[in-house]
Amino acid sequence: MRRPSPSAVRWMLLAALLLLWELMPQTKIVPELFLPSLSKTLTVLWKDRVEYAENLLVTLYEVGVAMLIACGAGILVGALVGGISVLRNLMLPVFSSLYAVPIVILYPIFTAWFGIGSESKIAFAGIYGFFPVMLSTAAGIRTIDPQYMLAARSMGATLPQQIVRVIIPASIPTVLSGLRLGGALTIIGVVVSEMLTASAGIGYLVTRYRTILDSPHVFAAILMILLLSILFDLLARAVERRTLVWQTAGRRVPSAGAATSTTRMPAPAPV
Amino acid sequence: MTAIEVDRLSHIYAGAEGGVPALEDISMTVEAGKFVVIVGPSGCGKTSLLMMLAGLRHQSTGTILCDGRPITDPDPSRVGVVFQEASLFPWLTALDNTEFPLALRGTPRDERRRRAEDMLNLVGLQGFGARFPHELSGGMKQRVSIARGLVQDPPVLLMDEPFAALDEQTRMTMGHELLRIWSKTRKTVVFITHSLTEAVYLADEVLVMSARPGRIVDRIAIDLPRPRTYEMMATDTFGKLRERIWQQIRKPEGTLS
Question: How far apart are CA A64 and CA B248, in angstroms?
Fold first, then answer.
């Protein structure tokens, strides 16, 4: 018997999960209050689509701004801390320890400072996503093979040339994985803070409908957050794949189907 | 004509109690177009010496002249360097890697393309320009490194154990290839190696260095005819030359004058 490919298995698992979601409440194995069926959740989502769309826009706006702050500041500070040894010795231990602190304890303070509108969510999620971006940028720069720098210098590269042509491309893989993690944390940060204190956003919907025990509406909101996170991850992976072509070009993917596994041909004649 | 002139070069690494002497009173002259190999025990400072010849590290005292002018900083128009493995940039194709020194100097795109392709052809890699380093074998990567070292057409090529990471068969082939490339370009080559066979096979002259602090303890002219062939390795002359180098290297510290 042929073994099914991993991706086929993944899709089957997903289908099975959705089927269970539909059947368990239908057959009364699980009470509707704990788990409303998939069809009921989708129905509710469709019926109140305007409300969900409005709140989704608020969440998206907060996530977008927070990601800009997390990524921008994270890359900037990470590059400085990773590239300048004085700063590194001074700051890196501090930042590494701060990373372990549950920053969510700061959120009540942020609501006091910035109010319960979008600003406090953006501030909190921005800081939450900042750390992985900053730490991985610093690590990416610090772990560049010194041989690359030596080779570049031997070819007469000036400092700006070393930065643009060696340090940046060499640290991109680590920075990108940091951005992926930081982006995901930003989404978490926004949703969590919306659930705590807010007047709008998908997280706010979860809390509001939970307090009135309206499970289908809660699950509809959860579903949207789930889709948002998955979409972000797919997007981040696609960017990674395109940017890091040099890591994978010509490398055969063992799990890929027959159609894609042997298409790599000998390099074409240089043009 | 003299290509490289090293005059009473010494180097002391900063450290406790006045530092560690690494290189001591090195003087050497390399005639243009010659192939000089430096051998010596591990840690004798031969790589440090090469880094100084490349302008990548500064000696404590003494001078290095290349083409009659001192070397203080890297100058790719006078000196090309080929390192041990892993110095190709993995995010650039073989062609882009070869072009890199020209791109740094702002050479127009068409010209650097053409020169890089010429170099890849010279090292036997025609048709491989679009490959990334991880798609190349160890020997091919070092061919790209050599092409990159030669692309600016510097009169001097420095090579720091370029074939050390290769398996023995590839290593022999690469040595032979290097001699072919050298005979076409007539560069002055300073080549560092651990392998005595490689040293005798490649060199016009072998400089033997002592253990730390590194000094030049012997200069051996290799007067085997060129082009060199693999068969020469089995001859008496080859064996004797190899033996003489080995005697110098294994000499314990104390018995050196």
Answer: 69
Decide if A250 and B117 are in contact by the 8 Å CB cutoff.
Answer: no
- Note whether residue B9 is domain-resident: no
Question: Span A53-203: which CATH code?
Answer: 1.10.3720.10
* A270/B132 CB distance under 8 A: no
Is B23 contained in some domain? no
Question: How does strand B35-39 pair with strand B205-209?
Answer: parallel
C-alpha distances out from residue A176 to A76, A129, A185, A267, B232, Å = 14, 13, 14, 28, 54
How many other C-beta atoms can be found within 10 angstroms of the C-beta atom of residue B70?
A: 11
| B145 lies in the same domain as B100 | yes
Cross-chain CB nearest to A147 (options B74, B83, B134): B83
Nearest to B100 among A155, A267, A269 (CB): A155
Domain extent at residue B184:
33-58+73-78+156-257
Pairwise CB contact (< 8 Å): B132 & A250:
yes
pLDDT digits (tens, 9 = 90+) for B70-120: 888 898 889 999 998 768 999 999 999 999 999 999 889 999 999 999 999
pLDDT digits (tens, 9 = 90+) for B207-240: 998 887 888 888 988 888 888 888 888 888 899 9
pTM, 2 dp:
0.80
Cβ contact (<8 Å) for A157 and B132?
Answer: no
Tokens of B31: 């005639």
Whether residues B209 and B247 fall in one domain: yes
Mean predicted confidence (pLDDT) in A145-158: 92
pLDDT in tens, A6-32: 889 999 999 999 999 999 888 888 888
Q: Answer with the one of B127, B153, B179 that is the final residue of a domain.
A: B153
Q: Which of A145, A153, A161 is nearest residue B86 as measured by Cβ atoms?
A: A145
Are B53 and B100 found together in one domain?
no
Binding-site residues on chain B for chain A (CB distance < 8 A): 54, 56, 74-77, 79, 81, 83-84, 86-87, 89-93, 95, 100-101, 103-105, 113, 117, 120, 126-132, 134-135, 148
B18 domain residue, yes or no: no
The CATH number given to whatever domain includes residue B38 is 3.40.50.300
Q: What is the dihedral of CA A195, A199, A200, A205, to 10 degrees?
A: 50
B252 domain-assigned = yes
CB burial readout A210-248, b (16+ within 10 A) else e: eeeebbbbbbbbbbbbeebeeebeeebeeebeeeeebee
Q: State which residue of chain B sits closest to A150, comparing Cα positions.
A: B56
The yes-or-no verdict on residue A245 having pLDDT over 90 is no
Mean pLDDT of B180-201: 90
Domain count, chain B: 2
Cβ of B104 and A267 within 8 Å? no
